[in-house]
Amino acid sequence: MRAAFGSRVADPMPLSFRGSGLLRNGSRGRFSVLIGSLTRSHAVNPISHYNSDMPFEAHPYCVTPQSEDAPLWRYMDFAKFVWTLEHNALYLCRLDGLEDTFEGCLPESIVPSVVAANEEWYDPTKNFDQTLPARIVDMTRNVTFVNCWHMNAHESAAMWKLYGGALNGIAIRSTYARLKASFGGYPGRVNIGVVRYIDFRSEFANPYSAVALATPKRKSFEHEREIRVLAGPDPTDPGVDREKLERGLRTVNSLIVAVNLSKLIASVHVAPSAPAWFGDLIAAVMRRYGRDEEVIHSDLYSRPML
């Protein structure tokens, strides 16, 4: 969908940043326009309204699976799997640490409108000599953290090769409902959104929200069928510089979000090319950590019946 700035898109909201307190006159304005949904509910104060009992929150810019039982897969190597068991947590990477250089970017089609809608007040010399679109992208990348899953009813040969490893790969199988239910110990807000694969030359993404900018990817990545966990730094954490957070500057390199593995894990799958002893090792490691979920050695490359 295309839209002119100054119009209203999706949820009614002004799309000019004027008056938001963002990047004005070199002030220390809050970054509420872009990161509000990651650090607050719908309040003015971006560091209030935390609820450690229910951190997951639906978001208007997060497309969700059609079914609560939508199967999800998290492909990883042995070290990352053991880390997950050891910490009972998910590791969320800051958006700028991902390989795709378009992460958090504005589609080319809306850049002129963003500039035109805010040129009267935006001063690059007071904002690190960056254009407004460049500053929006930097701020989005600085405060948005993601953990990526593959949504598919079946195993993916491509995902095994890309992220699991042929000989020592592991995949945690879950569902959308299980993933939502597994969060409980993180003081901040957690969102889950299906990635939209768009043409960055012609399609629209709303620059009003970091979540809206963190969920589109280029069509070249459609094979990933990705769904993301998204979160922002907990501003009540003494290790987080709240002033920097509110200005959209870097505060931490990663987030560790506690999860209930019993709710998260449906089964654990071992890479199809892995030797039998590796599957036995995974089962033994699971027992050592008190886990009783089924360990399944993938038969993806088994011989067909002739």
Output mean pLDDT.
82
Low-confidence stretches: 1-33, 35-54
Give the H and E element order: HEHEHHEHEHEEHEEHEHEHE
Task: Tell me the domain tally.
Answer: 1
Radius of gyration: 21 Å
In terms of DSSP E residues, the strand content is: 15-25%
Keywords:
9-stranded mixed β-sheet; globular; 306 residues; two-stranded parallel ribbon; alpha+beta
Reconstruct the topology from this structure.
Elements: H1 32-39, E1 71-77, H2 78-87, E2 89-94, H3 111-118, H4 132-143, E3 145-151, H5 157-164, E4 169-175, H6 176-182, E5 190-194, E6 196-198, H7 210-214, E7 216-218, E8 226-231, H8 242-246, E9 254-258, H9 261-264, E10 267-270, H10 276-288, E11 294-297
Parallel strand pairs: 6-7, 10-11
Antiparallel strand pairs: 1-3, 1-4, 2-3, 2-9, 3-8, 4-10, 5-8
Describe the protein in words.
The chain is an alpha+beta fold and 306 residues long. The chain has one domain (32-297). It contains 10 helices and 11 strands. It has helices at residues 32-39, 78-87, 111-118, 132-143, 157-164, 176-182, 210-214, 242-246, 261-264, 276-288; strands at 71-77, 89-94, 145-151, 169-175, 190-194, 196-198, 216-218, 226-231, 254-258, 267-270, 294-297. The strands form 2 sheets. Strands 1, 2, 3, 4, 5, 8, 9, 10 and 11 form a 9-stranded mixed beta sheet that branches. Strands 6-7 form a two-stranded parallel sheet. The longest helix has 13 residues, at 276-288. The radius of gyration is 21 Å and the shape is globular.
